[in-house]
Structure formats: structure tokens, C-alpha cells
Amino acid sequence: MKVNRQSTNVLRVFIQLLKREAFLEWEQKYTLSGILFYAFCMVFIISLSLSRSVNPAIWNGVFWIILMFAAVNSAAKSFLSESQGQRYYLYQLVGPGVLILARIFYNALLLTILGLVILGLYALFSGFPVESPGWYALCVVVGSVGFASILTLISGISALAGGKPALMAILGFPILVPFLNVLIRMSKIALDGLDKSLIQPDLIFSSGMILLSITLSYLLFPYLWRE
Amino acid sequence: MLAFFKNNGYKILGVVLIGYALIAGLLKSLPDMGGNMAQTSRNVFYHVPMWFTMYLLMGISVVYSILFLLKGKDRFDVVARESARTGMVFGLFGLSTGIIWSRVTWRELIPSDSFAAWWSWDPKQTMVVVALMIYAAYFILRAGIEESSSRARISAVYNIFAAASLIPLTLILPRMLGGLHPGGDDGNPLENIRLSNEFRVVFYPSVLGFMLLSIWILELRVRFTLYQQKFEDVE
Fold first, then answer.
1. What are B131-183's pLDDT values in tens digits?
2. B225 versus A197: which is more confidently predicted?
3. Could you give the CA distance from residue B225 to residue B235 in angstroms, rounded to a whole number?
4. Distance between CA atoms of residues B22 and B206, nearest Å
């Protein structure tokens, strides 16, 4: 019974943290609108420079680059926006494990929505040459969740390393490259409308990478905080 | 005398093995791979051990990062950093020998005026560049943190997290994508090397020799850094 109560307690804390994140985001509309504006500008500028006729392979590659930059930009704020004091207070209050899991979950939600918004905008400006849209959307969701699972810990690292703005990109890009490689391959299959069984190995591989980085974030995050 | 061999035996063995690999690797008659591979296949004795050694050193680096997080001894951080640094050097050697080798081997297949021919976008090649990028980021991160204890802790966390992304990437991804290296989907003439004993008798000693050499370099680097820190503390 005791274990059960504890686990529901953790779950409650987890939901509380999610609510807190969402509440803070809504309170200071600056960050959220900033992220959306950044994404909009990037999609608009890139679509403008690509001009209307673009071949599907390039369309796909450029889409993922937009998404990656937007993800790095929006995940950067998940630890940078709070002071050292707030950080230690939260750490003492809820423990690091549940905190990082809540942040990853929240970032995954945020980036999924952002990814789908970017996909919509990009389709509006640059066209939508995708053969199987459902599978492509699934790739976007997997990609966003993956970006969140990798970048949340990176955001914590760069915040503790002094919060220099470029650090997030320096630390994040090398780790994102292999994941991005798989995503581009996977989404290219959806783009061309090929047999869905071809997507499966990549889907399993990317899910494995997501699970691995969530597990490692959970294990490593406590060490990051310890003084 | 016995103590001398106990401490230095692996260094002597390493030098002897590398000497053997250099001489036998260049002089030994080998099964003909055909075409450009007839003689360039000897590079397998020098190019591949660079990668094996890089993986060994990066493995050591991760293990010592984990040890540092668990035990918190400064010495472990020094070993993690120096083995990442030495591993990067071996990685660069492996990359440059690979670029030259692929250029020579596939010369006829690519237009000679194309500069891109130096870079073949082989998955393993790409992924190794990612590995080097990760370790470059690791050193940039270290350079950005002033305070030494938090520098060691934060960079150890990054090292482990980044290295974990390397495991699937260098071992699984190239096999899925195919390419110039053995183990991919495309046919590679070097596939036969695995079966050939003529290659094995030079290849394995060469791998061991370069690994021992790298351990020697690592040991020197660690000792040097520790002495340096000691003198800085005295001053």
C-alpha cells in the first residue's frame, strides 16, 4: 500500500509540475509568443528564399532544419528562465528525477504542437508534396518528442554552465545530427508514399533513442544539481 | 629488472608490435584484391586500428566520467579529459587516412575535377565527424566553466550523455544505411579481409600495438597534468 501511495504521490507532483510550467508559460506570454514568432519568421523567410518550385527531397530536408532550429530555440528556455535560487528551491521540494521527467514531458508537448504548427505554415507557404500525410505527421511527432528528450538535459547543462546563449546550440547540434539523419530518412519514405513497412526499422530505432535519452536524463540529472 | 618490465612491459610490447605491423604490413605478400585495392588494401593495418583505438579511448573517457560522478575524485576527471583528447587525435588520424584511402581506391569512379570526391558521405565517415563534433563541444563546454569542481561534474554529465548517442550511431546506423565500409548493404572488396588469415596475422598485432601506444600516451598525459596541478597548488 505504501509503495502505491508513494507512486500516486510522484504522479501528483508530476502533474503539478506540468501545470506549473503551463501556468508560467501562460503568465509570461513573452516566451511563448517569442517562440511562435521565431518559427513563423523562419518558415516565412526560408519559403521566400526557396521560391515556389522546390523538389520534395529539398522540401523535406529544409523542413527538418527549420524544426531543429525552432526546437533548440524553444528548449533553451526550459532552465534558463529561472534563477539559481528558484532552481534549488524546486530541487529541494520535488526531487530532481520527477522534475526532469516533467520538463521533458512538457517540452515534448510544446514541441509537438510547435512542430505541427510549423508543418502547417510551411505547407501554406511552400506547398505540401507529401504522399502519405498521416505518416508524415507521425514522423513530426516522433521528431518533436525526440528533440525534447535530447534537448531538455542539454538545456539544463547549458544553464548550469553559465547560460551562455550559443552553448545550447554548440552542445545540442552534435547530439541531434544522428537523430535528424534517421528522421529525414523516415520522413522521406512517408513523403514518397512508399510501403509503410520500410518506416518500421527507423521508427523502432528512433523510439529506442528517445527512450535511451530519457533514461539517461533521469539518471544523470541529479548529478548535475549536486554541488 | 623485473619491476622495470612490470611497469614498462606494455610499452615495449606496443612498440614491438607497431614495428612489426609497419614492416610486415608493407612487405608481406597479400591476396590480390584486384584493381586499386591490390596494394592500397595494406592501409587496413593502419587505418582501422586508429578507429579501434579511438573507441577504446572514448570508452575509457566515459568510464572515468561515470567513476567521477560516483566517487568524485579529481584524478578521474583528468583521465576522462585526457583520454577524450587523445581519442580525438586518433580519430583525426583515422579520418584523414580514410579520406586518402577512399580517394585513391575510388578514383576512377568519380570525376577528377570534383572536389567533393574527397568526401564520400559514407555513413561511418559522417558519424565519426559527429563523434569529433561531440568531443569538440565537450572541450568548448569545459572552457566555458570557470569553477573547476562544477566544470568536472557538468562536463562528465555531457560526456556520458553524448557518448550514449554515439553507441547506436556508429554501430547500428552505418549497418542500416550501407556504404563504403564492410558490414553495409553495398558490396565492399574488403569484406574478404575478414576471412583471410594473411591479413589477420598483421591486423590484430597492429590493433593491439596502437592501443598499447595510446595507453602509454594517455598515461603520460595524465601524469603530466597531475604534476602540473601539483605545482600550481604549491605556487
1. 899 999 999 999 988 888 889 999 999 999 988 877 666 656 555 555 556 55
2. B225
3. 15
4. 8
Whether B172 and A205 lie within 8 Å, measured CB to CB: yes
Tell me the three-class secondary structure of A53-120, residue by residue: CCCHHHHHHHHHHHHHHHHHHHHCHHHHCCCHHHHHHHHHHHCHHHHHHHHHHHHHHHHHHHHHHHHH
Q: How many domains does chain B have?
A: 1
A74-102: pLDDT as tens digits = 888 777 767 777 777 777 777 888 888 98
Q: Is residue B94 part of a domain?
A: yes
User: Is the CB of residue A205 less than 8 Å from the CB of residue B172?
Assistant: yes
Contact B188, B180 (CB under 8 A): yes
Chain A residue with minimum CA distance to B155: A157
* pLDDT confidence bin for B102, thresholds 50/70/90: confident
A 10 A CB-CB count for A38 gives: 15
Among A149-158, A186-195, B40-49, B191-200, the range scoring the smallest mean pLDDT is: B191-200
With an 8 Å Cβ cutoff, are A217 and B161 in contact?
yes
- Do the Cβ atoms of B84 and B57 come closer than 8 Å? yes
**Nearest 5 degrees, angle CA A60-CA A64-CA A66?**
115
Q: Would you say residue B171 lies in a domain?
A: yes
User: Closest residue of B to A164, CA-based?
Assistant: B144
- Give the residue numbers spanning the domain of B80: 48-234
> What's the CA gap between A177 and B160, in Å, rounded?
17
Considering its fold, how many domains does chain A have in total?
1
Nearest to A39 by CA among A107, A108, A121: A121
Please tell me the predicted confidence (pLDDT) of residue B27.
Answer: 84
Going from the C-alpha of A59 to that of each of A53, A125, A127, the distances in angstroms are 10, 11, 9
Measured in angstroms, the CA of B133 and the nearest CA of chain A are apart by 6
Residue B151 DSSP symbol: H
Please give the Cα distance from B235 to B230 (Å, whole number): 9
CA distance A168 to A154: 7
Sign of the four-CA dihedral A145, A147, A153, A158: negative
C-beta of residue A40 within 8 angstroms of C-beta of residue A122: no
Query: Can you give the residue range of the structural domain that contains A175?
Result: 2-225
Determine what percent of chain A is predicted with pLDDT higher than 90: 37
> Is the CB of A150 less than 8 angstroms away from the CB of B136?
no
Question: In the prediction, which pLDDT does B187 show?
Answer: 43
Residue B28 in grid coordinates: 608481406
Binary contact (B165, A178; C-beta < 8 A)? yes
Q: By C-alpha distance, which of B126, B202, B199 is closest to B169?
A: B126
B2 within some domain: no
